[in-house]
From TrEMBL:
Native species: Polyangium mundeleinium
Taxonomic superkingdom: Bacteria
Protein name as catalogued: GIY-YIG nuclease family protein
Alphabetical list of Gene3D superfamilies matching this protein: GIY-YIG endonuclease (3.40.1440.10)
Length: 300
């Protein structure tokens, strides 16, 4: 863990020295691995209202004694990324909401909750974003401390260990772990300078990739070569103009949706004079293994 720059409490005092009742503000760290819950960092960037809807619903009266909350998203290890300050203006109780009133990105999670616990009473808070802390959003990373499982705490003296570009989604993972939605990819491309590790790692190599249409359970196997590797090829998918006779019509018809279509890496192939021959052979192998000619988008 890097040496702390200062504490989050000190940062709050610098940004808003007139904040009253600081002892009635909680720090909360959202980290949710339940089935159907989307990546929360990605959700913040792509659909902030959905994330705030998610945050406002709790199974217990977590925020009832608070004047406000400092909200964080859990990162690997003990780290947490600040996403905003919210004043608590009140709450109400209700059973699980009708999923049709829930943001689309959260609907799967809420449908499961309604099915599994149809009569559970939950708390719904009126949380109002505090603009005084907007300049810190998606920039401040803290060490949450050894009590990582305690996701809501009164303690604000957490060490600040990193200050990020506000449009950073964090470093690109290992090639085997890359599984990026087209919506997230489009964000990364728009904010390329804030996410250099994604650009650099994905343009350094080519190989065989897999497109997964999660809404329709269909696959497509393709290859990426040339000077910009996966990054250059995948830009075309983010822009929805790939030159592919099956993929582009699916975009036009609305069958392939950015939020439910992902790209992942099956094989990494270093760029070079003989790469094209190897790419062709590997692409055929993966098409046969995954049956993407008969049950997917591949046409040859």
């Amino acid at each position: 863990m890097p040496e702390p720059l200062f504490s989050f409490a000190e940062l709050v005092a610098r940004v808003c020295p007139t904040l009253e009742g600081i002892d009635k503000w909680k720090a909360v760290r959202h980290l949710d691995n339940r089935p159907g819950v989307p990546d929360l960092v990605e959700l913040f960037h792509l659909d902030r209202e959905a994330l705030e809807f998610y945050q406002a619903e709790q199974g217990k009266d977590i925020f009832g004694a608070c004047d406000g909350i400092f909200s964080f998203l859990g990162l690997p290890g003990r780290r947490a990324l600040f996403i905003g300050a919210y004043q608590v203006r009140g709450s109400r109780k209700a059973t699980v909401l009708d999923p049709l009133t829930v943001p689309a990105a959260l609907r799967g999670m809420y449908e499961a909750a309604r099915r599994d616990e149809p009569d559970v009473v939950r708390y719904y808070y009126d949380l109002v974003r505090d603009p005084r802390f907007a300049a810190l959003e998606m920039r401040v990373v803290v060490d949450w401390g050894p009590g990582a499982l305690s996701w809501h705490q009164w303690a604000l003296d957490k060490p600040v260990v990193e200050l990020r570009d506000p449009n950073s989604l964090g470093p690109c993972p290992d090639y085997r772990e890359v599984d990026v939605s087209l919506a997230k990819l489009a964000f990364l491309i728009r904010h390329e300078e804030a996410n250099p590790s994604w650009r650099d790692r994905l343009s350094a190599v080519g190989g065989i990739y897999l497109l997964t249409d999660r809404a329709r359970a269909r696959l497509y196997v393709g290859q990426a070569g040339g000077e910009t590797g996966f990054w250059g090829r995948w830009k075309a998918y983010a822009e929805q103009h790939t030159g592919n006779v099956a993929i582009d019509p699916a975009f036009t018809a609305g069958e392939l949706r950015p939020e439910s279509t992902t790209l992942s890496i099956l094989e990494v192939v270093p760029r070079g004079a003989s790469a094209k021959v190897l790419l062709d052979r590997l692409e055929v192998r993966w098409k046969e293994r995954l049956c993407t000619r008969t049950a997917g988008y591949n046409r040859n």
